[in-house]
Specification:
187 residues; alpha+beta; three-stranded antiparallel beta sheet
Length: 187
């Protein structure tokens, strides 16, 4: 399922072939303090990526990779179905250098569409209260929050109701500048 009208930016379900790029992405995430402060649903390692990609054919949970011109820029998941829940839990992370490029909104919009297509009536997530940027995005999409504990909120989105209409765009200028830096020879 395509998440953006931007050419060469796509989100798709993981496959066994994604083990290497996902593993590299996980290691990049694991080395970033801000990422690990807010995103730690499972080990961010090559070994976990290989295992996750190998079991995609037999799990009901859904894991996605987002790439721009073939480079991994995001990862997202809808979990809980394998454990018997009817409401999936959303989690996502974007490349640390691409924060603020609109990718989080694209990943969330994709997860909402996937959840609806799977027949889910709600979408759940947990967010740290200090993660103001993510919280703002989730509220914009219509999530309703309650305290989970002193540090986190639980958000719930009713997928049976019309979702708030708002444009979702990735910042192509930021994506292209990042890509240009990736392609530049090391000095």
């Amino acid at each position: 399922m395509e998440t953006s009208p931007i050419a060469d930016l796509n989100t798709r379900r993981l496959s066994e072939a994604d083990a290497e790029p996902l593993g590299r992405f996980f290691e990049l995430l694991a080395a970033d303090a801000e990422t690990t402060r807010f995103f730690h649903p499972h080990p961010l390692s090559q070994v976990f990526a290989a295992d996750l990609c190998a079991r995609q054919r037999r799990c009901r949970d859904r894991y996605f990779i987002t790439q721009y011109h073939g480079e991994t820029v995001g990862y997202s998941m809808l979990r809980g179905w394998d454990e018997g829940y009817t409401t999936p839990s959303f989690g996502a992370c974007t490349h640390p250098q691409l924060r603020g490029a609109g990718l989080g909104q694209l990943l969330l919009a994709h997860a909402i569409a996937e959840s609806q297509a799977a027949g889910a009536q709600h979408l759940r997530l947990t967010v740290y209260k200090e993660n103001v940027a993510a919280f703002h995005i989730y509220r914009k999409f219509g999530f309703v929050f309650k305290d989970k504990n002193e540090h986190e909120w639980i958000g719930l989105l009713d997928l049976r109701r019309p979702l708030p209409a708002h444009p979702i765009h990735a910042n192509l200028t930021k994506l292209d500048a990042w890509r240009k830096r990736q392609l530049a020879p090391a000095a």
